[in-house]
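User: I'm writing a tutorial on reading structure tokens. Could you give me a worked example: one chain, its sequence, then its tokens, then a sentence or two explaining what the tokens reveal?
Assistant: Sure. Here is the example chain.
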Amino acid sequence: MPIPAISVAMSVYNGERYLAEAIESVLAQSFGDFEFLIVDDGSRDSTPAIIRDYAAQDGRVRPIIRENRGLIASLNEMLETATAPLVARMDADDICRPDRFEKQFAFLAEHPDYGVVGSWSEDIGEHGEALQRGGEDHPLNHEEMLAAIADGGQLICHPAAMYRRDIVLSVGGYHAAFRHCEDLDLWLRLASVTKMGNIGERLVRYRRYPGQVSSRHATEQQTGSAISRLAWEERHAGRPDPTATLDRLPPIDKLDALFDRPGTARAVRERVAMGLLYSSSGMRDEGFELLMAHLRDGGRREGMWRTVARLIRFGEPLRALRLATVLATTSAG
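And here are its predicted structure tokens:
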């Protein structure tokens, strides 16, 4: 069989709700020279049957049906299995515009010094409705990308990314320690070995809803993101990356020892706490206790009384009372 130009990489876990729409948006691409790797990561719903059905209809679909191993293991498996020089990421709850692959393939052909290209995205809701987008769009060229890294900004939307397989493999693929922020860690490592950018068109419709991973694991994602940026700072300064060989990140309290620098844990705790103030899931899970520890440690208090009101709206009156008590006590002290 001839080698395809692109290997599309999608991992699915209990994704029956949106899977067909996502698959069809890939199969309908104007650029059709691809293989479509779909890992069923141990789903308990009808996901395997949906994948097999599409594989029977279209020979480009290559199903991998197996037990649950997690997203990072699935991503690395697809990297190893892929036969094309380019890999296009795709998630099972998003939708590709028909010309996505065509435009990203052309960009990488015209810019051999770029190893990764993403695109801007259009936010949609649970039922496909358009959502108002907040914040700035992703950076377009590598110079803007480096500035975004320094400012802690967004880099590349993972399901909108297309990258050169050999470059990603050269940096070790996805690192298991950075669960739920494996893409950010990868972009930060790739920034030192290749150029990265985004196409300034909304080539992916990105679905936002309460059940998605970024909503369910907000605290772990924020914590891993903060540590991945610390690791980038170490590499950027020419120092060894202490996270490079980890399979799991340590608790925040252990970060001073990991990075051999006093105050690291306090800085990460503050960054994570301030990043979770608007997250209903973060304020309902261990993120709330992290916020409380941040305040007891004399951390920043801006916006905290508004967070009390927000907790009430989140249906957490007892946590709102606890936060108000700590704010009043520390203020009085």
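What the tokens reveal: The radius of gyration is 21 Å. The chain has a mean pLDDT of 93.
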